[in-house]
Amino acid sequence: MLNRYPLWKYLLILIVLLVGVIYALPNLYPADPAVQISSTASGTALDQERLDRLTQALEDEGIDVKQSELDGNSALIRLDEADQQIAARDILDDQLGDAYTVALNLADATPDWLAGLSATPMKLGLDLQGGVHFLLQVDMDAAVQQRLEANASAVRDILRDERIRYRDTKIGDRTITFQFASEEDRNAARDLIADQFPDFDYENEDGSSGAALTMTFTEQAVQALQDYAVNQNLTTIRNRVNELGVSEPLVQRQGPSRIVVELPGVQDTAAAKRIVGATANLEFRLEARPDTPDREVETLNFRNDENRSAELMRDVIVTGDHVSSASRSFDQNNRPQVNINLDGTGGSMMSRATRSNIGRNMAVVFIEHKTRTHTVMEDGEEVEKREAYTERGIISLATIQSALSNRFRITGLDSSSEAADLALLLRSGSLAAPIYFAQERTIGPSLGAQNINQGILSVELGLLLVVLFMLARYKAFGVVANIALGLNLVLLVAAMSMLGATLTLPGIAGIVLTLGMAVDANVLIFERIREEIRAKMPAQQAIHAGFERAFTSIVDANITTLLVAVILFSIGTGPVKGFAVTLSLGILTSMFTAILVSRALINLTIGGRPLKKIWI
Predict the structure, then answer these.
(1) Which CATH number covers residue 89?
(2) Contact yes or no for 2/608 (Cβ under 8 A)
(3) How many Å apart are CA 349 and CA 193, to the nearest integer?
(4) What SS3 class is residue 12?
(5) Is 125 helix (H, G, I), strand (E, B) or coil?
(6) Helix orientation angle between 575-591 and 505-534, rounded to the nearest 10 degrees
(7) Which of 446, 460, 490, 548 lies deepest, with the highest CB count within 10 Å?
(8) Helix (H) or strand (E) holding 53
(9) 293 and 344 share a domain?
(10) Same domain for 455 and 602?
(11) Given 3-state DSSP classes, what are the helix, strand and coil percentages for the chain, each rounded to the nearest 5?
(12) Is residue 117 part of a domain?
């Protein structure tokens, strides 16, 4: 019988539509702006009474609390307005102190029965959800300087091991100069290190102060180092952003020395800058002995006590680059500490250094590269100059009781938040070169909400125009096409939610384009049915022929568009990818609804019946 589907095909279509409706429903429940309170020490868990006092304190300050809830050692306070999150966090910080961590959050509002099916709403991009945009500049000169200092330290170790005496070391612009007492020592040093450090050109210099050896960083090595610095910083920043738990961040390279970072949903720009741009690292050094030469000693202050200092060896045992994992915890006195695991190389270096220095003090040095801007006069005009500088401070100084392996602890931290930040930075990796913020933009949640409203309005207007056109052009068959179009929109939203795709403004443009393209298949089918009817073909045969003969044209047209969308996704970035994702998914869902769903509706209503005339 013409225009009848077997039962299994109807059931299959019904199941697909039912799944689509279920997984599209969470988008009707947008996430609530919230603040999350977590305990940072044992024995400080919140109870309901204290949580009620905190919510009352927020309401007294004019902040509307939607709901508060306890979950183990943490609490979640949902707010009505996103722009009140920062104010609420500051109030709670004052109320709770260092024993608790208060963080901004977006609380899922999906009903439990949908969450039980793993149904989640679509993620929103920066332009819809609000957030921050950073343009980071990598300090290439500092990258070269750091590499020179590391190589100078390595050369000193080699010379000491081989008992080759040197007087002094000077680091200049791409150069390292070693002073020797005699030409014999200099020549022996050159023969020893030339093969081990091939990235340098070597030149002998003689003067009144003795024989000198100058190592100059080659241009090829500088270029390779700068490229490595940007790529390593890119990886490290990605790791840090992932640790922040930001939904669908964008971290990508721009040009030879810049990195773009976009963090949707982040309102606390100060906290984001502190984590993303921190160039912190650790060095483990031995305390200098009284008879250590002055050129091998560096005096550093303690970070938490400027009046206290210690004399340390310039040579480094191991750096934070060898940290494989780091986590915050508390000692038996509830003081914050960071548990450190070193990689194999770092563990061997630490074991070798501590095994021969039991009873000697070892310091943990915190290093942070920063920049400051000052105004100078050039040619009668004020010009801003950016100056890079480095801060070094001792976190802890402890006696080596026994040989250390790849596991140990760092104590002496001021607060739990400092321990958490330090653990995060070490866990995600150190930056290969300092960076500074060349540009910063903030998109507020109110602007994001306006973009969402305008985007929804554009979809509604596009849908309305298509619906009116189909009704006017194809009458009863237009109703079928419009139902299929609505179901197509539901399936598209469900597919994006299930795949975890991010919706952006270009993505909304892709949805609007999909709505117009989705009815193309129905137009081809219905026009073919009209042609068959004009050729005096019976109504049921005309419907069957319309669907069968238009199928090839529909597939060809959609496959070519799909190929273009795939190419856009593979070579595009950011907004282009967002557009390509919605367009690709829209093509697939529109083919399903226009061909299978619309025919199923026609089959159920008029299929297999004797018809003298059809309204098309």
Answers:
(1) 3.30.70.260
(2) yes
(3) 21
(4) helix
(5) coil
(6) 30
(7) 490
(8) helix 48-60
(9) yes
(10) yes
(11) 50, 25, 20
(12) no
Residue 14 sits in a domain whose CATH number is 1.20.1640.10
Check residue 6 and report its DSSP letter.
Answer: -
- Cα–Cα separations (whole angstroms), residue 49 to 20, 53, 61, 68, 167: 43, 6, 19, 12, 69
AA identity, residue 28: L
Answer yes or no: do 430 and 478 share one domain.
no
Residue 374 in any domain: the answer is yes
Across 252-275, average pLDDT: 77
Kind plus residue range of the DSSP H or E element containing 229: helix 219-244
Residue 210, Ramachandran bin (φ over 0: left; ψ between -120 and 50: alpha; else beta): left
User: Which residue pairs, CB below 8 angstroms and at least 24 apart, start in 102-106?
Assistant: 102/35, 102/36, 102/37, 103/35, 103/36, 103/38, 104/33, 104/34, 104/35, 104/36, 104/266, 104/267, 104/268, 105/34, 105/35, 105/36, 105/76, 106/31, 106/32, 106/33, 106/34, 106/247, 106/265
CA 258 to CA 139: how far, in whole Å?
A: 9
For residue 522, the tally of other CB atoms under 10 A from its CB is 25
d(CA 91, CA 12): 54
Give how many domains the chain has, as a whole number.
Answer: 4
SS3 250: strand
Cut 0.90: pTM above it: no
Alpha carbon of residue 201 to chain centroid: 40
State the Cα–Cα distance between residues 469 and 518, nearest whole angstrom.
13
CB 341 within 8 A of CB 318: no
Instruction: Identify the CA nearest to 95 among candidates 60, 132, 68, 69.
Output: 60
The domain of 597 spans: 7-27+449-606
DSSP 83: G
Residue 396 has phi, psi (to 5 degrees) of -150, 155
Q: DSSP H helical segments within 500-538, as ranges? A: 505-534
pLDDT at residue 475, rounded to an integer: 87
Co-location of 266 and 297 in the same domain: no
Residue type, 489: L
**Distance in angstroms (rounded) separating the CA atoms of residues 115 and 113:** 6
The two tokens of residue 316 are 């480094």
Give dist(CA 242, CA 275) in Å, integer. 11
Residue labelled with tokens 């959050």: 105
* Residue 413: closest CA among 339, 490, 323, 514: 339
Same-domain pairing of 67 and 207: no
Task: Please identify which residue in the block is written with the tokens 């793993």.
Answer: 118
Q: Please state, in angstroms and rounded to a whole number, the distance separating the CA atoms of residues 463 and 476.
A: 18
Both structure tokens of 336: 């914050």
Residue burial 12-32, b: 16+ Cβ < 10 Å; e: rest? ebeebbeebeebbbbbeebbb
pLDDT of residue 482: 92
Strand 210-217 with 280-286, pairing = unpaired
Mean confidence (pLDDT) of the chain: 82
Q: Which tokens hold the place of 273?
A: 């800058």
**496-554 residue pLDDT tens:** 999 887 788 888 888 888 888 888 888 889 989 888 888 888 888 888 888 888 888 88
Q: How many Å apart are CA 90 and CA 104, to the nearest integer? A: 11
Element (H, E) at 24: helix 7-24
Tokens coding 603: 């089959």
Joined tokens for residue 197? 């450090």
